[in-house]
Amino acid sequence: MVIDDDPDFVAAMTAILRSAPYDVVAADSAAEAKGKILAERPDLILLDIMMDGLFDGFSLCHSIKTSKEFDAVKATPIIFISAVKNIAGSRFGFKGEEQGMIGPDDYIDKPVAPADLLARIERLLKK
Amino acid sequence: MHEPLILIIDDEESMRDSCSQILLKSRYRVETVSDGTAGLLKIRDLRPDAVIVDLKMPGISGFEVLEELGRIDPRIVAIVVTGYATVESAVEAMKKGAFDFLPKPFTPEELRMILSRALEHRRLALEAEKLTREKKLLEDNIITMVSHQLRTPLVAIQQYFEVILSDIAGRVEDEPKEMIRRASERLTGLLNLINDWLDLARIDQGRLLGKIKPLDPGKMMRKLVEFMTPAAKEAGVTLEWSGPDAPDFKALGDEETLEQVFINLISNAVAYNKPGGRVRIGLGEESGFVVFEVQDSGIGISKDHLPLIFDQFYQVSRSEGRKRKGSGLGLSIAKKIVEAHNGRIDVSSEPGTGSTFTVRIPKARGEAEST
Question: Which of B36, B137, B184, B326 is 20 to 30 A from B194 in CA distance terms?
Answer without folding.
Answer: B137
